[in-house]
Structures are given as structure tokens and as C-alpha cells.
Amino acid sequence: MLQGFAGMETTGHETDAVLIAIGVLIIIVAAFGCFGAWKESPKLLYIFAGCLIIIILLELSVGIAAAALRPQIEGTMKTQLRASFIKNKSTREEDSVYREFWDRVQSSLECCGVTGPENYGASEPRLKPSFSCCPPDNSDEVDEIKRSDCLSMEKYYKEGCEDKVLSTVHSAGLSVIVCGILFCFLEIAGIVLALWLAHSIKTEGKGRETA
After folding, report:
1. Angle of helix 96-109 versus helix 42-88 axis, rounded to 10
2. Distance CA 27, CA 19 (A)
3. Class of domain 12-210
């Protein structure tokens, strides 16, 4: 999402690799818990609990790092958004990706420009707001007439995209934080149950030896 809102082309391969790695890790960790419970092996259950503790520590470290880097990430996003907006105003064919990016952002987030539609005329080349700044028009008129009416009557969106992009990223980040907290509680429950089961198995084993 950060790469996409910075006007960068994203392939998704990095995300796929991370998800695959996480999936493999989850299978390995879960295997220790399953086989430990099935074979009644305290060692495997202790390994399972230890892996969960490591995962929780990693989650906490990532959360702390993300909180510490948040101002830097926001500053970088603002810089890249403004740089991509300048390229969006370019007429060069190689900059068409930035025009497509801004058209997509402005139409989906219902905003115009970085801080407002005045950004289009603030620096060279001085342009009128893009057609993507205009609200959807379901009339039967051709696009040229729709755009002309929108610009002449100033129907285009008045809010800038910078704040809306940051708000969208913050909302996504909040969802990740909530999910992370829920997973932490589940992992803590898994640690407690694994240790309890391992202790019960060891206690039962000693009881059999005594008997």
C-alpha cells in the first residue's frame, strides 16, 4: 500500500514471498504442537511454546519499530506523493504511469491534487484539474462535455489527496495492529496450554513410574 500510494509500480512478488514464508513457518510451528500433543512429548511442546514466545517477541519488535518510524514514513510518503504529482502533470509518455496513478487515487478517494485542485495551476505546466477530480456523471454526454461542465462549474473535488492517503494508510495500520493484538492473545493462550499439557504429561509419567 505504501509503495502504491507513493506512485510506485508494485508487482506483489515481495508480498507473495513473505506470505509463503510465514505460511511455512506456521506449519512448522504448528507441527511441533500437534506432534507434541499426539506423542505426548514434553520436549516438542516446550519447543512449540518457545517458538510462540519468539514469534510474540518478533511481533512486538516490529510494532515498536513501526511506531518509531511512523513520522519518517509519513514524511517520505508526502515527499514521494508531491514528486509523483509533478510527474503526473508531465506530457511525456514515460510519465504516463504517474498520470494513471493519480487518476486512480483521485477517483477512488474522491480528492484532487496534493493539497487541493489549486495544485494543478500552482506550478509549470499550469493545468486545469484532471477529469478524475470530477464526481461520476451518469449522463449520456460525451466525456469532453462532462469534463468541460465539471471544470466550468467547479464541480471537482475540493479536498487534497495527501490527507486522504495518509488517513487510508492509518486505517489499514490500525486494522493490522488490532489483528496483531488478537493473535498475541491467541499465542499466549497457546503457550499457556502447551506448558500446562507438558507439565501434565511429565506429572503423569512420574506417577506411572512411582506406581
Report:
1. 110
2. 12
3. mainly alpha
Q: For all residues of the chain together, what is the average pLDDT?
A: 84
Which residue, among 103, 113, 121, has the nearest Cα to 161 in the 3D structure?
A: 113
Please report, as a single letter, which amino acid is at residue 43. K
User: Which of the residue ranges 84-88, 121-125, 163-167 would you say has the lowest mean pLDDT?
Assistant: 121-125
Specify the higher pLDDT residue, 123 or 194: 194
Alpha carbon distances (Å) from 89 to 99, 145, 156, 181, 200:
7, 21, 17, 43, 69
- The packing angle between helices 161-210 and 96-109, to 10°, is 80
- Cα(first)–Cα(last) distance of the chain, in Å? 62
What pLDDT shows up at residue 62?
81
CA distance 5 to 52: 34
Q: Give the C-alpha separation, 81 to 8, whole Å.
A: 10
Q: Where are the domains of the chain?
A: 12-210
Q: For residue range 49-83, what is the model confidence (pLDDT) as tens digits? A: 999 999 899 888 888 887 888 888 888 888 888 88
